[in-house]
Structures are given as C-alpha cells and as structure tokens.
Amino acid sequence: MDFTIEQILKVKECGQLFTGNPDTLKSEYQTLAKKWHPDIHGKEKDFDNAMAHINVLYKQAIEVLESGNWITPNQIQLKCIDGKTRQIKYKISNDFELGKTYIGDSVILYLLPKVHQEFFNNAKERIDNFKYANDKMQTEASRYLPKILSTFETEDNQLGMVIEKTSDLILLKDVLGYYKGKIPDKHVAWILSTLYNLTCYLDYSGLSHNALSIDNYFISPKFHSGALLGGWWYSVPQESKLKGLPSYTYSIMPIKIKDKKIGSIITDLELIKLIGREILGDRSGVKLFDLAPIEMINWLRISTSSKALDNYSKWQEVLTQSFGKRKFVEMNLTSDMLYD
After folding, report:
1. How far is residue 319's CA from residue 196's CA, in Å, rounded to a whole number?
2. Are both 320 and 253 inside the same structural domain?
3. Are residues 174 and 159 part of one domain?
4. Most CB atoms closer than 10 Å: which of 24, 33, 143, 215?
5. Contact present, 72 and 62 (Cβ < 8 Å)
6. Is the pLDDT of residue 44 over 70?
C-alpha cells in the first residue's frame, strides 16, 4: 500500500504497515525509510513525525514477531502456553482499563496482562455460575448475559477470554460515536429499558456488576435489545466486599456505599442514569434540557433510592409521561455501517 503521511500517523498496529514475514521485515522497513526519512526531505516536520512513528511500529513488529503474537489488519494471532496458536478476526479493537478488546461478528476477545489474574478469575467465576429460577428465565436472561467460549494464556503472559456475540450486537460506545455524541432521545429510551430489565435479573441473582458503561454494553438496533458482555471483572455478590472499581463507577456511588466498600444494586442503577445522561450528550446532566422530554431528564438527574424492580416500574411511567403510547422506533444501524 502506498501510504500518505496522514495514513502512517493513524496506524496503530504494526500489522497495518508490515506483512509479518520475519524474512522481509528489515527490507520492508528500509523501503519505508528510503521514502520517508527526513534527511531526504530537508528535515520537514511532517516527515520527521512520520519516520519516528515508523520506527515505533518497526520496534513493535520485532517484539511481536518474537512473541509469536502477530497482529494483521482485522486479525490477531496469539501463541499460547498450551502449544496452540489462536487466530481471531475482528472489526475493531478498543483499550479498556485492564487491557484490550477485539470485537468481531460472532465473538469478542478480552485480552488482559497476567497481572490482572484476580480480576480475570473473578469474571470467569461469575459468568460460569449465573443462576436462574427456571428454564423460562434462563432462555430469556441468557440472551443479555455473556457466554464464555474459551479462555487461554499466551506465551507473553496475557490472559484471553473469548465471549460469544451475535452479529446484530454493537458496542454502545461505537453507536454513540456514530451519532456524534448525542443519541436521539427515543432510542435512548429503549436502550435504558433494556438496562433496567437487566438489573432486575442482577438483583434476583444477588449480584452487583459495578461496571455498567458504554464500553461494556452492546445493543441490537434491529431487535431493540442489549447484552452486558463486558466489565464482569468487578462484579461481586451484593453486600460483599468490592474487588476494585473503574473510576467512573466510584464517581457516582452514594457515600454510604463508598464507605462500606460493598456491592450494591444501587450502584448499577446509578450507572444506568449515568449512561442515559452520557448518550443523550451530557454526563453531568446540566445541559440536558433541550435534548429530551423534561420527565426523562428529571429521572436521569435524581438519585436512586429503591430496588431494581421498583426502578423498572417507575421508568415505564416516565416513558409514558415522556413519549405517550409505546411504539417501535426503528434505528437503522448495523455493524457494517459502523466498521466497514
């Protein structure tokens, strides 16, 4: 590929610039250097920056080749301690507070440094032990909960967790980006409804997730549903000691829960309101008044004081007051529109 300076500076992974062939890596680098080295262009600043970035990616390429975990565009290859090499195709990758995610059509790979083994084990334990009252509840609730397809450890001390995902599910963070930071209020309404429905299950199970966010929640524009596939590293039984928290969770926790340092469904309910404010366009809630009906805004600004089922019921009243009779509002959005 004949790159421009702008394209080179946007490259994040060495596999976007180099082929991954150890026999030709050095010659590929030399070819790029001959074209972009600032000595050839009178040390212009743009070429200086481009060459510096090429050097960083070249160093990354050497390290990744040595580890056996080469990343090509839209595909990551991981050499594991069990002797297997795992390859996963993805549409987009994102950093999160404990590591990195690779989101594909049918799977999500969460990759964490081994230093976070305790969080990794905690998530696996929670996901492997979801409980249901009966088969009907399991059929319904399992649609918006994660299912682990595999876990593994790489030779360079990373922990991998592969989660099943249906092709219609899109990360809420990416949906917000598509709408340029402000999702229309009628779409926010059904997104929050799916979250309130989810917390009813969490409350039944006696769990506190503690990391509900646009980085961990996936929505289906096609079916107006959602799935909480990420963030389970921090989940704990309600009333038990917290294992850790993302900073955004700590910022909205009621003082009483902060002092006790325990899991509580109130934290998850407060996080839903934070998500609502954020996807409407203002996390603080101060500038929401032109972005949604007043009843909806007032709901998102008040503190939570009751359990999940009560919140779900009250939210249904807020929806009626805000929008009148309930009806399906199509969100014409697919993952191909976002990522391709």
Report:
1. 12
2. yes
3. no
4. 215
5. no
6. no
Summarised one tens digit per residue, pLDDT across range 106-139 is 999 999 999 999 999 999 999 999 999 999 999 9
Closest CA to 166 of 194, 145, 140: 145
Return phi, psi of residue 7, to 5°. -70, -40
Quick one: 137 and 38 in the same domain?
A: no
SS3 track for the chain: CCCCHHHHHHCCCHHHCCCCCCCCHHHHHHHHHHHHCCCCCCCCHHHHHHHHHHHHHHHHHHHHHHHCCCEECCEEEEEECCCCEEEEECCEEEEECCEEEEECCCEEEEEEEHHHHHHHHHHHHHHHCCCCCCHHHHHHHHHHCCCEEEEEEECCCEEEEEEECCCCCEEHHHHHHHCCCCCCHHHHHHHHHHHHHHHHHHHHHCEECCCCCCCCEEEECCCCEEEECCCHHHCEECCCECCCCCHHHHHHCCHHHHHHCECCHHHHHHHHHHHHHHHHCCCCCCCCCCCCCHHHHHHHHCCCCCCHHHHHHHHHHHHHHHHCCCCCCCCCCCHHHHHC
Same domain, 26 and 68: yes
In the listed set 164, 199, 226, which residue is the last one of a domain according to the structure?
A: 164
Q: Which domain holds residue 55?
A: 5-72
| More confident position, 272 or 13 | 272
Q: What is the pLDDT of residues 293-333, one digit of tens each?
A: 999 999 999 998 789 999 999 999 999 999 999 888 899 99
CATH code for the domain in which residue 131 is found: 3.30.200.20
